[in-house]
Amino acid sequence: MADIWIMRIGHRPQRDKRVTTHVALSSRALGAKGIYVDTKDDVLEENIRSVVDRFGGDYTIHTGVKWQDATKDFNGKVVHLTMYGQRIDEALPKIPKDENIMIIIGAEKVPPEVYERADFNVSVGNQPHSEIAALAIFMDRFTEGKALYADREGGKMTVIPNERGKTVVSKNSE
Ligand code: SAM
Predict the structure, then answer these.
(1) Domain residue spans in the chain?
(2) Cα 128 to middle of ligand 1, angstroms
(3) Does residue 106 have its Cβ closer than 6 Å to ligand 1?
(4) pLDDT for 150-160, tens place per residue?
């Protein structure tokens, strides 16, 4: 599986703080390499890096990066998630699995240039819902569910699946 990157556009630090944090955390959990966010946000960067520090993996975050710059020399296909796009079940077989992908998701209205730049405009149903839901469904289908329980290198703790309680193993005590 090639690398998956996220480009979050329209981020407003005050208003979207929680949603963009969840976009980053969900994409990390579902196997992305990292995220670009168009507005500079040091607090967001700090929060995500702290999770990576504790739970491992090499997920990276860059804020203050315009979508035009992130996509300009991107070596792979650009997938824009939008309720107006082609059906996910029809799009998925056309998206190469051996090339990197950059997934663009919006916050408010997305400029028409994004629709033109994208190699694939993909809908996750044609109803309006959420960038977190759209991203999670798209990534889980694209990776065929394989990223969810994949091991992550480094970090300070690992959660062991448990039918009832919480089992957390501290890597420092090993
Ligand atoms: N009203 C905005 C527009 O027309 O572009 C979209 C706002 S929506 C809350 C924010 C983001 O969620 C969108 O930019 C898109 O990436 C994603 N999204 C929402 N519903 C979607 C759907 N049905 N399929 C794919 N992506 C969706």
Answers:
(1) 4-173
(2) 6
(3) yes
(4) 988 899 999 99
Confidence of residue 95 (pLDDT cuts 50, 70, 90): very high
Task: State if residue 114 touches ligand 1 by the CB under 6 angstroms criterion.
Answer: no
**Would the CB of 81 count as within 6 Å of ligand 1?**
yes
pLDDT score, position 171: 85
CB neighbourhood size of 149 (10 A): 8
* Contacts for 145 with CB less than 8 Å, ≥ 6 apart: none
pLDDT for residue 1 = 76
Tell me the CATH architecture of domain 4-173: 3-Layer(aba) Sandwich (3.40)
- What does the pLDDT average to over 85-95? 98
Cα–Cα distance, 138 to 148 (Å, whole number)? 13
- Output the pLDDT for position 108: 87
3-class secondary structure, 104: strand
